[in-house]
Structures are given as C-alpha cells and as structure tokens.
C-alpha cells in the first residue's frame, strides 16, 4: 500500500512516516502544497494524509483540484481541534475522513486501514482468497490456517493483490506500489518477489495471466506459470 503524507511540520511528518511504515505502507512525503498537488495528481496512491495548513498552496485548494482532475485516492485530512468549519468544508470538497490534531497515532492507523479497505471494496480486515488468508491489521499471511513468514515487502505485494482480488494487476502497477518513485527498480524486481512468495505460499495461490500480470487464485488449482 502506497501512502503520501502532506505535512509541513517536520516532527509530525516524521512521526507519521514511522507509524505508517510500521503499519505496512510505502510512504512518500510532500512538505508544501504545490509539490503535494503535483504528486497526488500524477501518481497513484492508496492513501493520502493531508494537512490543511500548508505553505504555497492550502490543503482545501489542493483537495478540490485533485477531485476536479479525477484523483480518486482516499484522503484523510488533518485539522486543528475545534475547526469544525474546516472539517465540513473538507468533507464537502471530497475528503473521505478527517482527524483533529492532536491525535493518537493508533487511531490514525486504524482510520487509514479502513479507508484503504473501503476504497478496494473490502470492509473486513481479514481477507480470505482460496487457501490464502491475509490479515491487513496484523500484517500476516496464512495458508490453510498455517502462518507463513513474509517480509514487509512480500506482505505489501500479497496484500495489494488481496485488495485487488477481482482483477489482474500489471507488473508496472505492482512495481509502483512496492517501490514508489524509485526509478532504479525494474520489472524483474517484482518477478523476484513473486518467485519468493510462490515458494512460501505454495502452488495454486498466485496466478499469472501472460502479458497482463498477476492475480490471486480463488480455487485450489495451480496458477499459470
């Protein structure tokens, strides 16, 4: 899961970065409004955490531009406690949720996960796909109920496939959600992670649609090699 943090306070940004990274997100940071508007409008994020008081361009203006330009990423806005008018305006502008400052990081993580699940049409934190169980909150995977040890990178990949279980996901899309804007990564980096996961999860879990990408198998049969 790929997240953009838009926050100009270095301490808050650092705390958000650590918490979301620990929760399994690939985190990127924008510290001013113009940079945030550009990145949110040109990149594909599973979640955007948006502070409203930003230099160069305020958060509400950014949000309105994103929505008018077709950006559909879930947006969680951060507001000053008691600023109810800002919260109302933010929701009306297209925000999916809000959290007043100061806040507990545990609540932000819970809201962030819920937004990502809802955006994928998945209300439950535990996803069952064939023999595979993915727990988005505990960041665990299991086959036939038996836990499988996965790395954070492997979990990001399998959880993204679980949230997009109804379609085939292209390698380029997986690359973006695994490594963000790291241009040094190539498509074979995704293949390497898929290969490791297949060894751990066994046959019949991750399938391939040649020329299109990868998907999770919903039955007991092996995926196409």
TrEMBL record:
| PROSITE patterns named among the record's database cross-references | OMPR_PHOB, RESPONSE_REGULATORY
PTM-bearing positions, type 4-aspartylphosphate: 51
Which SUPFAM superfamilies does the annotation name?
Answer: CheY-like
One MF annotation (Gene Ontology) recorded for this entry: phosphorelay response regulator activity
Q: Which UniProt keywords apply?
A: DNA-binding, Phosphoprotein, Transcription, Transcription regulation, Two-component regulatory system
- List the InterPro entries hit by this protein, alphabetically: CheY-like_superfamily, OmpR/PhoB-type_DNA-bd, Sig_transdc_resp-reg_receiver, WalR-like, WH-like_DNA-bd_sf
Gene3D superfamilies per the record? 3.40.50.2300, 6.10.250.690, Winged helix-like DNA-binding domain superfamily/Winged helix DNA-binding domain
The chain positions of domain OmpR/PhoB-type read 124-218
Q: Which residues cross the membrane?
A: none
Q: Which GO terms describe its cellular component?
A: cytosol; protein-DNA complex
Which ranges of the sequence are annotated as binding DNA? 124-218
Q: Kindly indicate whether the keyword Transcription regulation belongs to this entry.
A: yes
Q: For this entry, list what GO says about its biological process.
A: regulation of DNA-templated transcription
**Pfam family of this protein, just one?**
Response_reg
UniProt protein name: DNA-binding response OmpR family regulator
| Species of provenance | Paracoccus lutimaris
